[in-house]
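Sequence only, no structure available. Ideas?
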Amino acid sequence: MAKQATAEKRQRRERGSINPDDIIKGAFELAEDVGIDNLSMPLLGKHLGVGVTSIYWYFRKKDDLLNAMTDRALKQYVFATPYVKADDWRETLANHARTMRKTFLSNPILCDLILIRSALSPRAAKLGVVAVEKAIENLVEAGLSPEDAFDTYSAVSVHVRGSVVLQRLYDKNRANHGGPGDFEETMVIDPDTTPLLAKLKREGHRMGASDDQNFEYGLECILDHAERLISAR
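Reply:
I predicted one. Tokens follow.
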């Protein structure tokens, strides 16, 4: 949950004593407290102990700063995700997907920068492409056609990102409004009219939720389909 958008004022730095790396590092620190949405140049200046003009010298507007943060977050993300191997494609691709999801769920700032706004970053499209190319190459080596390898990796990526963004929106709705986090929580399930739904809900099943059970089911469906395609070839 994002805290109130305030920052503790530090001792004032000397003029010219800050650089872009200091600013980006400080922006990540501040975002941990107030969230990306509430991050502002004046707050960041107070957090760093500099005048806001010192920040504008390097980043003319907030979007420029967010782009720089996104680029750094993408490098961190690419480094953290494991490779897909041809000789054990199913297990390594599944591990790749689970690690991506775990990384984003454990770091809301990474999620907001990469999954929600990375398309706005001019350099974001260039980062991570080599890793994706290698993953698809290894799926081709494992027996998929280039087209099927591309579609399989794309489906896994969409599945991971969709699951994480749904969870992030759920958390934001709960934090901002204190009410239902998703549509399932607003559903009225009457055992008399929808006995099957009532039974499954009692057993812990959740419709449209980004929980582990739904994520694993979808992931296994994608992997099973890929395995059938390899067998057919």
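The two ends are 49 Å apart (CA to CA).
Hope that gets you unstuck.
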